[in-house]
Amino acid sequence: MSQMYNIYCDESCHLENDKQKAMVLGALWCPADKALSIFKRIREIKEIHGIKNHAEIKWSKVSPSKHLFYQNIIDYFFDDDDLHFRCLIIPNKGELDHKAFEQSHNQWYYKMYFDLLKTIINPKDQYNIYIDIKDTRGADKLEKLHEVLCNSHYDFDRSIIKKIQLVRSHEIELQQVADLLIGAVSYLHRGLEDSATKLKLIERTRERSGYCLTKTTFYKEDKFNVFIWNPRKKTEKIC
Asked: pTM value?
């Protein structure tokens, strides 16, 4: 029987001219029928730490006083077999040469989302994809992304990828957990070291995942999958 999955996607430093070196796309997924129980467990962790239900889990809000809370969220992710994460890292956006490949940054962006999701999507299952709202052009980008993903998976009737929907991350706990994991990977790859608490959370993620987070993991790693993407030179041939 097919399984319905929810995929929660977010991104860090995705704009072309944001003066940030590294870019990260990430996706956290779980069986759709497990989502409510996972939301409930996250709220229980908040309550244990005296954090209000509506308080947003966010990498930018990591602080020394909330270190144990964020560590417990990371531990919960690794302890729950229904939760999975994959990230795609572009180490240096300065090496991109869109002109050479006759593409815009947006066109390349859709290709990266395809590379992010292609190992997650199984044609025997079904998927709802949720993406955090980033800008006013989100709806147009969303429809294009749905078209590209469906066509690439021969899903012309959209029976596999049922929907791609814009959401506000402060309303969905798993969207927030995706932000936290993406934030940790992005912080590492941008070479930042200004927060000892964030560095501790990155180290915790390394310990629990068993990976250094700076190298590509096995293709089929389905708990914490890391893919380091490097641009192909125009002169390189594809075998």
From this structure: 0.89
